[in-house]
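Q: My labmate handed me this sequence with no annotations at all. I'd like to see what the chain might look like in three dimensions before we decide whether it's worth expressing. Could you predict it?
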Amino acid sequence: MLTGAVPRRVWPSPVPSGLPPVYGALPYADEARATLLAHKERGALRLAAPLGAALAGAVRAAATGPAPGGQQTSQGASRSGPGRIQGCGSARALALVPVPSARRAVARRGHDPVRRIALAAAARLRSDGVPARMLPVLRQRRTVADQTGLTAAQRAANLRGALEAVPGFAGLLGAEEAVLVDDLMTTGASLAEAARAMGGVTGAAVLAVRSGPRAG
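A: Here is what I predict for the chain of 216 residues:
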């Protein structure tokens, strides 16, 4: 596992509307930043395993939460009930739903890094006794502008309505708990849009968090 990967509840500032509870494994700095960039941009695919292990910890935290008093999902239901994942031996299955990368970025890199890391995270969870799989049921419905340099408000506007769930995704999901996964959270706009497209999720997990959000 990457050094210092300790899942914690994280928030961007400001918090976009509809953002589910997010757990992050690492701050986006030093070893985490270098490892993510090597995997994403330089094709160091062997790094998917340690990145997936770190993400698996954040997924577990997102599924087991909540903070004192109970977290709320983006659907508004309390996560303190008996359906929550309680540990390695739980029979409640998890579906790791990756936030889709832009098609042009996937073509340029030659792979989809978030999907690859989500696969590795699901494999790690299964090895720990948690039923889990990667379920790519989100897709882009329109092209979005490059997010580099955009403010939080501009990112939210850029992504609004950009994603959709594939037809019949609820049947594919079944009784599994859906946890959104991404490699990096900056403003939370991508996760909020993904949650909207899904119609609500248990929570979200990210490998790294940029720019020091508050944590608890």
